[in-house]
Design goal:
Layout lengths: L3 H17 L9 H14 L8 H11 L9 H11 L3
Helix pairs in contact: 1-4
The structure holds calcium ion (CA) (2 copies).
Protein name: EF-hand domain-containing protein
GO molecular function: calcium ion binding
Organism: Euplotes crassus
């Protein structure tokens, strides 16, 4: 049984995937993730420019199994962590 917040997050992730999973393979690769992070930074009015080193660090935090792509589960875990869950 999922709680409401989880449903909101699931829906949010579906929307992210619709926008950013350009090749529709079900995961976000590095370039897709980069677009996603840029968009997020723009939305919170942060400077969307970041160095490759910063990106790599961020990507490693997303990519729990280190296979080079972000799955929906990894994105969800990341969002839950941000929300302090
Ligand atoms: Ca993809
Ligand atoms: Ca992964």
């Amino acid at each position: 049984m999922k709680n409401e917040l989880e449903q909101v997050i699931d829906q949010y992730i579906l929307d992210i995937w619709k926008c950013f999973d350009d090749d529709n393979n079900g995961t976000l690769d590095k370039s897709e993730t980069k677009d996603f992070i840029k968009k997020m930074l723009e939305e919170v009015n942060e400077d969307p420019d970041f160095s490759d080193a910063e990106f790599e660090k961020c990507f490693r935090e997303f990519d729990e199994d280190s296979n080079g792509t972000i799955s929906r589960t990894e994105m969800k875990n990341f969002i839950m962590r941000i929300c302090g869950l």
